[in-house]
Structure formats: structure tokens, C-alpha cells
Amino acid sequence: GVRAAMIALLGITSVTAFRFICFGDLLPLAYYAKAGSIGFGLRYGIEALILSTSLVGMGLVILGARHGRNGDRVLAAALVAHLCAVVLAGGDWMPGYRLIVPVLPVYAALAGIGVVRVFRRRRWLGLVMLMLAGSVPALDLATRIPDLRAAGRSRDSLREFVGWLHENARVVALVDVGYIGFSSRVEVVDLAGLTDARIARMPGGHLSKRISVDYLKERSPDVIVLHSVAPPDVAADGRLRAFDGFAVEHHVAKMPFVRAGFRVERVISYTPNYHYIVLRRVESRQITPR
């Protein structure tokens, strides 16, 4: 136990020291960029427990910790600590409850221990409990299969847009900096602040940063990419009149220099509920693509 604690402490210390030397801060950038509310984190944790365990699985974990060995109780304590950390972090906005995924193997092991130790003489009842524990996760997975199949096709639909960005843009401001930002190989202004230390420290929570007008002008994007759940309302002259996006995107779209100097170049339907709105600087529309 002492050796394990020393190894864990060495890992934490080395990562923190590396972060401070490279980035000048003991805390990760996500601490500033993705600050969430306790209320949202609590809702996230409850929904994750229901969809991952059907709640029956949590009962099996409690039985496993109660009737298992000391090491099993330590694992149960680690599960509780991880769940508390997720709640305190404010949860996550993406589907699938990915923040719970790393500890699912520990949950499964403890649930299995609960079944073996408690239902040894009534194996049929243990089997029923396992089936109940897996029922909600199975139903949830079944409802997501169409989205999983469409994910690859949706990614293919962005390839042409990524090529267009590479040819027609130098600096792009957007939230989805991952695939689009990396593949287009342009300079990125991360509106969520996950890769931008200055935006991360600006007021507001995750996806609701109140970005400084002066800072965005300083970065001088020639393309701004917003997202909308529903198809946006675009005027005949290219002005963006209405869209259903993140708070930070609405904040940017309302900036006077954006309203005056940018027009909608194109709208890309990534999925039926996810549309990209490509705003291009007016004077850039006359520039010959490189």
C-alpha cells in the first residue's frame, strides 16, 4: 500500500510539475475552460448511473462491497470518489456519459462479486439480477445504433468543407476545433477555450465564454464557424438572422464587427440536428483562394 501510494504521488507530482514548466499553471486548462455547475454535474451523474447500471447494478455493487474482501471495499470507495469528482467537475455535454466509462470495468467486477457471493445458492436469481442490470444499457445502445452508423457518413461529408477551409481561410474561429481544425491545417481560435489559455480564463462556463471583442479582433479570423441544432435563418444578402447554437456562439454572432463584416458563405448539414454555419469576412470573399 505504501509503495502504491508513493508511485501514485510521484505520478501526480511529475504531471503537475510538467504542466507548470510548460504552461505556467499547476491546474489544467480544462479547469478554467470547462467549469461546470454542481447542479448540472449532479444531473449528469444520476443519468449516467441509470443508463449504465439500471440502478440494479448499483445494488449489486453494494452487495459486492459488503460481502467481499477489504480490497473490494477499496474499489467501491474508488467508484464513489470518481462519481463525486465527476459531479464536482460539472459533468459533460457530450452524449454517451464518457466520464463514467473509465470505471465501468471496476463496476462490472464488483457487481459480479455481489452476484457470486450473495446468490450462490440461487443462481437463477443472480442471473435475473444481471439481466436487469444490463437491460437499460442495452436499450440505450439500441437507440444509438443509427447515430453510430451515421457518424462515419457525417465525417465524410466534412472532408470537402475541410479542403475548402484550407484553401480559403487563414484563421478560423469555432468550437469544434478537433477534426475540422486539425485536418484543415489553419490557425484556430478555440471559442470554447480548451486550447486557448486567454479564452479559457475569460468569464463564463463551458460553451458560454464571454469572449472579449478586442481579443477576437486581435486574432482577426477570416472565417467563423458556428453550429445550430435547427437550420439557421439566413437573409438573402447572407446576414445571419437566427440560429440555435451555444451561448458563446450567440455572443460572437452578436458582436458588431461580426454582424457588419461577416456574411454566411454556406450552411453544412452535418446531421439532422447539427448544422455548421460558415461565416466569411466580407472582404475575404473577393480574395483569390490560395
How would you describe this protein?
This protein has 290 residues and is an alpha/beta fold. The protein contains twelve helices and seven strands. The strands form two sheets. Strands 2-1-3-7-6 form a five-stranded mixed β-sheet. Strands 4-5 form a two-stranded antiparallel sheet. Strand 6 (262-271) and strand 7 (274-281) form a beta hairpin. The radius of gyration is 24 Å and the shape is globular. It starts with a helix and ends in a 9-residue tail after the last strand. The model has no long low-confidence stretch (mean pLDDT 89).
Produce a short descriptive summary:
The chain has 290 residues and is α/β, with parallel strands linked by helices. The protein has twelve helices and seven strands.
Strand residues, percent: 5-15%
Binned, the helix content reads 55-70%
Name the overall outline: globular
The H/E string reads: HHHHHHHEHEHHEEEHHEE
Structural class: alpha/beta
Residue stretches low in confidence (pLDDT < 50, at least 5 long) are none
Give the averaged pLDDT, no decimals: 89
- Compute the CA-based radius of gyration: 24 Å
Spatial order of strands in the largest sheet: 2-1-3-7-6
By DSSP (H or I, 4+ residues per run), the number of helices equals: 12
N- and C-termini, Cα separation: 61 Å
Strand segment count: 7
Largest sheet: 5 strands, mixed
